[in-house]
Structure formats: structure tokens, C-alpha cells
Amino acid sequence: MAREVAEPEALTSEHLIHPRRRGEREALRVLLATRQGAVEATTAAINHLKALVVSAPDDLRAEIRALGSNAQVAYCAKLRDRPAQSLEHRMTIRVLRSTAQRIQTLRAEAKALEEEITALVSAIKPELLEQVGIGAVSAAQILVSWSHPGRFRSEAAFAAFAGTAPIPASSGLTNRHRLNRSGDRQLNRALHTIILVRARVDPETRTREGSRRRAAHCSVPLSGASVSRESRLIASRESVL
Length: 241
Description:
The chain has 241 residues and is mainly α.
């Protein structure tokens, strides 16, 4: 019975949800997905390199551990084994070199993909990149999730889709909200990154967060309400509705 009633209501709704479009939006999506894969593979390769360094022969480990992370990668990528060295030493050098060169290749791939993303975002909606705290990757994710004008009927709908609208969780005399764990999690992460950057460099955001923390009497992280507020500001300022 409930289904029979819901179906006519859905058909007569004034604002049915629109599917995401392809074209430029799909181009950004595949670039973002591939870049994310390269970044994750880079992290895994770095962790593997550090594990190899820990178990390397003493003299080799002492040489590498004195260097910083980037210097370690550059140093290991140029390592050469010699016949006079032991089998363990030679094989360790080879895998260190292979892993370091993989890291360099993946980093170059991620950088090239980010340049493609930047160029595409600049062509589609350059004003996004002019806003404080919004980089090319975050802007691309907003455009991918937004898709096209008219997809969201209001700023509140955009916040709900992004999972930034706090959910009422009041009980008795306690009036509170909890974080929204649903929605587009990639968009949610992009918005959270934007707000973290703004909290460091934007005077307006820093003042607002400072007031909130003073009211809470502690140094607490960004609240769900803060993320929701900023997501609505982004939606209204950038006309992504």
C-alpha cells in the first residue's frame, strides 16, 4: 500500500533527481580516479621501501636512515650493486632501487594527471580555483558530484547530498545533532579538505572557528555544523545549484 502511494507522489514531484551527465564531468571523474589510484600506490610503495630499509644490512641501513623521506627515494633510485657484495646485500639494493624508481614513476604520473585536472577545471569553471582553500583536485570533485546546473534544488539539498548536513539526534531534554555518515563521501572529503585549509589561511573562517572553540571551552576539531555551513557557502558563492 505504501509503495502504491509513493509511486504517484514520485511521478508528480516538482524536482526529480537528475542523473549525472557525462562529457566533461566524466572526463574529470576518470582523471580523479586514476590520480587517486596513483597516489594510493605511491603511499603503498613508500611504506614498502621503509620496511625494506628497516630489514636491510646494517651498513646499508645506516646510510639510508640518516636521510629524509624524499632524499631516501632519490638515493635508493640510484643505488648500484657490485659483484663483491654478498648475495643478500645485492638483492636488497636491487629491490630498493626498483621500489624507489616505482615511487618516482607514480609521483610523476600523479603530477601529470593533476595538471590535466587543473587545465580541465580552469576551462569549465575557473572561478572555483580563485576561492580560498579550493585546489584543482577539490574543485574537480565538486564539479564531478555537482554534474550540471539544476541538479540540486537548494543549498540544503547540496549539503545533504555531500553528507555535511547534521542529523538531529535529540533525546529528552538534550538537543543535539550527530554527523551524517551517508552522502557522497568523496565530495565530503573534498569539502572537509577545503575547510581545513580555510581554517588555516582564511581570516573569516579562522575567526569563526576560534569563536566556536572558545564557546566549547576546548580545542575541538571541525564540527559537522562547520562543515555544513561551509558547504552551503561554497554552493551559494559558486552557483553550483
